[in-house]
């Protein structure tokens, strides 16, 4: 490299970042490792490192080709998705600026658990690089504030506070619908750097201002767009500021229950939703782009709940390429989810519930459009009467 070219800067100290610089191998050549969640209340996820994000900054007036190696503990032979977001100036480029990184431009080495790739950083540009197309907690709060200003009659409220002092938002869009209409709850996963927050916040905007504006008259809708604000801000996947795993923090209520889980559970007990859909995403390249997880109907103790759940799962299945993932009662997979919110709603309250996987190989726009399709089908096509 020309001696006049200044070295690229690598940043990991901003909201959502979590990569660790293992070694600088040259002016534009870096070896990074991921930072595990370090969950204290769930040993299985103590070393979980699903997520990696960092920023490259080019101080030069010419483009510079960066060479990156990311070391991931649980890397599959196919590797994981990568995404980039260009920041040409100091303004926020928005979530839509995230683009999947071309798979053909990466080299995966399962033996060393590494992914290698080259990416151009344009003149005077900052470039976000991540295994997930993230939306920071600050961006979520700013978007909600802007929506509240444009729609003062919409109920945007806090249902609790995190150990880090951040509030957990709920958006209630059910006051225009008759009280006898079903109440659908759409939530973002506690795995804060999957696409749940991105897709859920998109749905809120579409219902208020876009193609889904008629839905509040057809159904009562509630959205939980940010259920792990601490993790989102601190760059963890599942854990909060106390290193508690929230995705599997919905066991029986006691002093060890994470405050975020306690707040969401109490809120849902007050709402008594007709069904619950939790949005997630895959970074794994060997998984299908869109996939519902279907819980065994035998887990529902009431006939009415089983009927609604069967229709619910059927609609999601019809909107998705096969195969779905079935959580058969009594299997190790089903047991491993019993401390999740979805499982507790099913087994404890008989509320039809599921999680749904989007995929980071797809663009943000494609994932959001698919989430809108799911919500539209659930509102317009669910048959709530007895068969």
SSE pattern: EEEEEEEEEEHEEEHEHHEEHEHHEH
Low-confidence stretches: none
Average pLDDT score: 92
Shape: globular
Instruction: Determine and state the CATH class of the largest domain.
Output: Alpha Beta
Beta-strand content bin: 25-35%
Number of domains: 2
Output the structural class: alpha/beta
CATH topology of the largest domain: Aminopeptidase
| Largest sheet geometry | 8 strands, mixed
Distance between the termini: 71 Å
| Rg on CA atoms, Å | 21 Å
Quickly give the CATH architecture of the largest domain. 3-Layer(aba) Sandwich
Q: Tell me the number of strands.
A: 18
Put simply, the count of helices is 8
Question: How would you portray this structure in words?
Answer:
By secondary structure, this protein is an alpha/beta fold. The chain has 2 domains: 9-130, Immunoglobulin-like (Sandwich), CATH 2.60.40; 137-381, Zn peptidases (Aminopeptidase, 3-Layer(aba) Sandwich). It contains 8 helices and 18 strands. The chain has an 8-stranded mixed sheet with strand order 11-12-14-13-15-18-16-17, sandwiched between helices. The chain has a 5-stranded antiparallel sheet with strand order 1-4-10-6-7, with no helix packed on it. A 5-stranded mixed sheet has the order 2-3-5-9-8, with no helix packed on it. Strand 2 (20-26) and strand 3 form a beta hairpin. Helix 2 packs across helix 8 (364-381). The longest helix has 18 residues, at 364-381. The radius of gyration is 21 Å and the shape is globular. The termini are far apart. The relative contact order is 0.13. The mean pLDDT is 92.
């Amino acid at each position: 490299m020309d001696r006049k070219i200044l070295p690229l800067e690598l940043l990991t100290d901003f909201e959502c970042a979590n990569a660790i610089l293992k070694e600088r191998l040259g002016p534009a050549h870096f070896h990074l490792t991921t930072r595990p969640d370090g969950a204290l209340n769930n040993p299985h996820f103590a070393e979980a490192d699903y997520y990696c994000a960092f920023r490259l900054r080019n101080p030069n007036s010419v483009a510079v080709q960066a060479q990156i190696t990311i070391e991931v503990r649980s890397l599959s032979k196919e590797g994981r998705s990568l995404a980039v977001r260009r920041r040409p100036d100091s303004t926020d480029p928005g979530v839509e600026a995230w683009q999947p990184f071309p798979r053909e431009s990466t080299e995966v080495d399962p033996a060393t658990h590494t992914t290698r790739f080259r990416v151009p950083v344009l003149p005077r540009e900052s470039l976000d690089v991540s295994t997930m197309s993230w939306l920071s907690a600050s961006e979520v709060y700013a978007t909600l504030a802007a929506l509240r200003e444009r729609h003062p009659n919409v109920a945007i409220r806090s249902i609790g506070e995190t150990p880090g002092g951040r509030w957990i938002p709920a958006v209630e869009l059910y006051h225009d619908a008759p009280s006898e209409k079903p109440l659908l709850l759409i939530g973002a996963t506690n795995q804060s750097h999957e696409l749940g927050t991105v897709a859920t916040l998109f749905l809120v905007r579409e219902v208020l201002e876009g193609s889904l504006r008629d839905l509040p008259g057809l159904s009562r809708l509630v959205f939980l767009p940010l259920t792990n604000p601490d993790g989102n801000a601190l760059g963890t996947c599942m854990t909060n500021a106390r290193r508690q795993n929230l995705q599997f923090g919905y066991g029986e209520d006691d002093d060890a229950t994470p405050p975020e889980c306690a707040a969401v559970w109490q809120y849902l007990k007050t709402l008594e939703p007709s069904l619950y859909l939790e949005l997630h995403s895959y970074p794994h390249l060997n998984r299908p782009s869109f996939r519902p997880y279907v819980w065994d109907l035998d887990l529902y103790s009431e006939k009415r709940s089983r009927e609604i759940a069967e229709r619910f799962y059927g609609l999601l299945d019809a909107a998705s390429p096969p195969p779905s993932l079935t959580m058969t009662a009594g299997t190790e997979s089903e047991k491993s989810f019993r401390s999740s919110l979805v499982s507790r709603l099913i087994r404890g309250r008989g509320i039809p519930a599921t999680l749904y996987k989007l995929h980071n190989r797809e663009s943000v726009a494609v994932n959001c459009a698919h989430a809108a399709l799911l919500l539209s089908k659930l509102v317009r096509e669910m048959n709530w009467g007895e068969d």
